[in-house]
Every structure is written in C-alpha cells, then in structure tokens.
Write a structure and sequence with these properties.
- The termini are far apart.
- Helix content is 23%, strand content 32%.
- It contains six helices and 15 strands.
- The chain has two domains: 51 residues, Vcp-like ATPase, Chain A, domain 2 (Roll); 177 residues, 3-Layer(aba) Sandwich (Rossmann fold), CATH 3.40.50.
- The structure holds S-adenosyl-L-homocysteine.
- S-adenosyl-L-homocysteine (SAH) binds next to α3.
- The site of S-adenosyl-L-homocysteine has 20 residues, from α3.
Length: 241
C-alpha cells in the first residue's frame, strides 16, 4: 500500500511509512487496518484524522539527511529563476543527502548528481527509492574534474569551491543554460562571482538570499514565529553564453 499521510484540524501530521503496522501517537494509536479507509479515521481514544496517500512533498520533508540540505525556500528560488520544467536536463553537485537533486527530479526530465563520498551516495540511493524517483542518476565523481553530460539546462552547485567547477560547467551547459551556486558564506560568493566575471563564457545575473519569516496566527496573538530558521545560504545565478 502507498505511504499514507494523516493530518487533523489542528495541523498535527504523521507520515505512515509502513501501513502493515499499528501506528502510535500522543493522540492514541491507529490499527494497521485503519489505513485502508478513505477520508477520516480515529485513534483508539477517538481523535479524528484525515488520511490520504502521501504526496511528493509529504515524503520529501521526511527524507534521510546527513549533510546540510538546501531548504525548500531556497529550492523555490532555483525553480522560479531558472524555469526548469519537464523537458529540462539537470546536473547537481555534490549530492549530499540529495534534497535538491530529488526535488528537481520531481519536476524535470532527468537529474545527474555528482558526489565524491560513498557514505552520502548510500543516503541518496535510499532517498531516491523512498520517493519512488526513476530519473535520478548518481555518479561517484569529482565534478571539478569534468561533467560527462552535454546540452544541460541547469547545473546546480553546492560545494566548498564552486569556481573550481567552472570549466566543467562551461562544457556541459547549453548556451542560455543556467548555473546556480549555493554557498553559506560571503567569501565563497566573492570568489565565485569574481571568477565568473572574468570568464567570457558566462554572464553573471545576481546573488540573492531568501529570508522566510513564518508567522504565528492564534486569535489576536499574531506575530512572527519566535524560533524562525536563521541563515541558510546565498544563491548566485549565472548564464552560459
Ligand atoms: N545540495 C545537497 C547538499 C550538498 S552538501 C542537498 O540538498 O542535499 C555538499 C556535498 O558536496 C557533500 O556531500 C560533499 O561530499 C560533496 N562534494 C564536495 N566536493 C565535491 C566535488 N568536488 N565533487 C562532487 N561532490 C563534492
């Protein structure tokens, strides 16, 4: 049976990975047979939840993670600025936990993700299977040494020294294709943009940071949520010319 997602009117959520087992929560437990029902189900203590097949995003929020992943707010800007779509071919490095690679794979035609560490490759393999993706290929290669793919629409880099990938990226990207580099700190952004500006094969577009501020809305207590996420990274956008 497909993985199920449960949510109640209070916004409490559960992902049921194994529908062949009972599931215990602080609201009581569900019996394994309950997950076959459609619509509303109740715990043994009578708390009601809505049940449905888990969607891509319900699963993506629960992927295994080890390296720092690119958060959804930043993935959103990558998708909107580059216009990737079901025809696009994407290369990504390093894979890390595969958060970005897998999110993009759900939108584009194919993703090839480069990773030098075998322990991370195992995590990405697990996540690809968990999400049921068929269009992600993992390569155990150093992206600074070359990209095998050609005519690529987007290369996304989340690496300590992204400028070292520029000559590989130049050969892989189609003219007009995008390069986006994600870096947590400004010295990396400075070096990357400086190298891009000196390279006549690229046009530098912009560097942005996405600040998402979630608000608490409880009656008249309406204010920014106190434990908001802090800084993640800067996104630099470049086009192959
Ligand atoms: N964007 C990923 C996280 C990447 S973390 C996500 O959303 O999940 C950075 C990863 O880059 C690490 O796993 C590291 O092993 C890998 N890496 C570092 N240098 C690399 C290189 N030259 N080629 C390929 N992968 C590299």
């Amino acid at each position: 049976m497909a993985k199920k997602f449960l949510i109640n009117t209070g916004g409490n959520k559960f992902l049921i990975k194994d529908t062949a087992k009972d599931f215990h929560t602080k609201f009581g437990f569900f019996k394994k047979g309950d997950f076959k029902s459609k619509g509303k189900i109740k715990t043994n203590t009578g708390k009601e939840f809505s049940v449905f097949d888990a969607g891509f995003i319900d699963l993506h929020r629960k992927i295994k993670r080890d390296a720092q992943i690119i958060p959804l707010k930043d993935i959103g800007l990558i998708v909107s600025e580059t216009g990737v779509n079901p025809k696009s071919k994407v290369v990504d490095a390093g894979s890390g936990s595969g958060a970005l690679a897998c999110f993009l794979a759900n939108i584009v035609k194919e993703v090839v993700t480069y990773e030098i560490r075998e322990d991370f490759i195992k995590i990405v393999e697990y996540n690809i299977k968990f999400l049921g993706l068929k269009n992600v290929k993992i390569k155990n290669k150093n992206i600074y040494e070359g990209i095998d793919e050609k005519n690529v629409d987007l290369v996304a880099l989340d690496l300590p020294e992204p400028w070292r990938a520029l000559s590989s990226v130049k050969k892989a990207l189609k003219v007009g294709g995008f390069l986006v580099s994600y870096s947590p700190s400004i010295p990396q952004v400075m070096d990357f943009v400086d190298k891009v500006r000196k390279n006549k094969n690229f046009a530098y577009i912009k560097t942005s940071e996405i600040i998402e501020r979630e608000w608490e809305v409880e009656g008249r207590k309406v204010r920014p949520r106190s434990q908001a996420i802090g800084h993640s990274g800067f996104l630099s956008f470049v086009r192959r010319i």
